[in-house]
Amino acid sequence: MSAADHLLAHQGIRNTAGRLDVLRIFIDHGHALSQPDLERHLGDRYDRVTIYRTLSLFLEKGILHKVLDDAGAMKYALCPDTCHAHAIAHAHEHVHFKCVRCGNTTCIEEIEVPVVKLPSGYDLQERNLLLSGVCKDCNA
Ligand SMILES: [Zn+2]
Ligand SMILES: [Zn+2]
Ligand SMILES: [Zn+2]
């Protein structure tokens, strides 16, 4: 069983070819990807609706989480293992890092988004923090 098969089986998701292909792309890349990135990798094997539904299912099941990129683009990244057990309310309060050289956005799971105290009258719903600079691959 591949890592992708295993993850789908663990989450009780039927392993269609499309789901496996999408998941493998995330596992191979190790950084956040947008739907257009996925479409580029998959060629014309699947239509947009299939890819979109697969992403929605993976978000719901704690396999992927959303990553807000600097240009307002929505990307997706693999969840840490801890999400798989708590798929219903998985929250992502780790920092994301966008590299100005390769353009990749990576999860920095070791660093939590710092707590910010809001003025009264404001209710917090989500915390996102995107840092940018040169990533460790480009720095190597
Ligand atoms: Zn998650
Ligand atoms: Zn880089
Ligand atoms: Zn992340």
Could you say which small molecules are bound to this protein? zinc ion
Mean pLDDT: 90
Strand order of the largest sheet: 1-3-2
Distance between the termini: 33 Å
Spans of at least 5 consecutive residues with low confidence: none
Q: Radius of gyration from the CA trace?
A: 16 Å
Structural class: alpha+beta
Task: Report the sheet-strand fraction.
Answer: 15-25%
- Determine the number of helices (DSSP H or I, runs of at least 4 residues): 6
Percent of residues in helices: 25-40%
Categorize the overall geometry: globular
Largest sheet: 3 strands, antiparallel
Secondary structure: number of strands: 6
Return the string of H and E elements: HHEHHEEHEEEH
Structure in words:
A hairpin with a 5-residue loop joins strand 4 and strand 5. The strands form 2 sheets. The protein has a 3-stranded antiparallel β-sheet. Strands 5-4-6 form a 3-stranded mixed β-sheet, with no helix packed on it. By secondary structure, it is α+β, with helices and mostly antiparallel strands. The protein is 36% helix and 21% strand. The chain is globular and about 50 Å long. Helix 1 crosses helix 2. Bound molecules: zinc ion (3 copies). The site of one zinc ion has 6 residues, from loops. The site of one zinc ion has 7 residues, from helix 6.
